[in-house]
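To: structure desk
From: M.T.
Subject: fold request, one chain
Message: Could you run this one when you get a chance? Sequence is below, nothing fancy, just the single chain.
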Amino acid sequence: MKTRKRNIGFIVLIFICAAVFTGCFGRTKPPFVMDQYTLDYESPRASLAGGPVDELLTVERFAVAPQFNSTSMMIRTGRYRFDTYDHSRWYVNPADMVSGFVLRDITRSGMFKGTYSYYDTELSRYILEGYIDEFGETTDGRALVSVRMTLLDTSRKNQVEQIVFQKQYVGCAPIGNHSANDLAAGLSQAMKDLSARLVADIGQAVNSTAAQ
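Reply: Done. Structure tokens follow.
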């Protein structure tokens, strides 16, 4: 009986040691590398007919539709269906990326005395808000970004009258191959075109309201 108990105990000990050994040394396969991407384009040139205005503007962090509210590189594969690129991610959330590039492009346009992001403490007369409806690859292989933009003039007391304009901006560009790199390139071109139209509209709107 004692011999049988020793054998059982010895077998249990072997299993425990094997489990520990496997846990420590069994992972011989190297982890995969996650590629990270971001937008990359030159700021569009802005034509300021009325010249720069002596006002400040703040770009708030844009909101984003739930299905795009992650660093996954989204592919719309059909109605109700999405997929993602394996081992490829955006470096930051599209909300931070798009609002950051819009702030950069407006700043480089020189239309305002100062431009600020949402975490700055400056009190700006003009506020730009956005909501990203689409940011990814379409079913027919195009890069698509769609953003609802709202420009506010906080100098007006009535909240409805504070809305200078609210527009939907859509940028679209072809994708060479079905790859994460080509999606990043296509969305960069789409964002450049979208940003150029947005900056022009803001310049026109601000020049007509700044003196009021």
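Reply (cont.): The longest helix spans residues 180-209. Let me know if you need anything else for the meeting.
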